[in-house]
Fold this protein.
Amino acid sequence: MPQKRNTRRDPNIAAIIGGVLKEIRLFRNLTQSECAEKMNITQSQWSAFETGLTRLDFVGLTTVSKLFEIDIIVLCYMIDDRIKFKNLNICLSLPEYQEIVKKNEEQLKKIRQKKARNEIVKLESYLK
């Protein structure tokens, strides 16, 4: 018999996401009002995101990543680490995450280029 899926949401996740938003906002030297204005919401709505009273969906997280001028992947890494470890002393900082993503993107680019070259070689041998 299939197990019943737990549909209750973890209330701490919204608070963790909010903590990440606050951390990045402070790193960027922005006020809640400035963030709210850029997202076209009120300061109290932004505050509700930071305190975890209001949840952000993926579209909201994407908007926030654009606001902070960071890759959505960096934002997701930060949130994921804080959910897993819950100890901010062992989590990486924003610049550290950005460096990791940059290195990963460089590696992905090399892999894609190699695969593209392999496909060209296959195509050339097929056309002979």
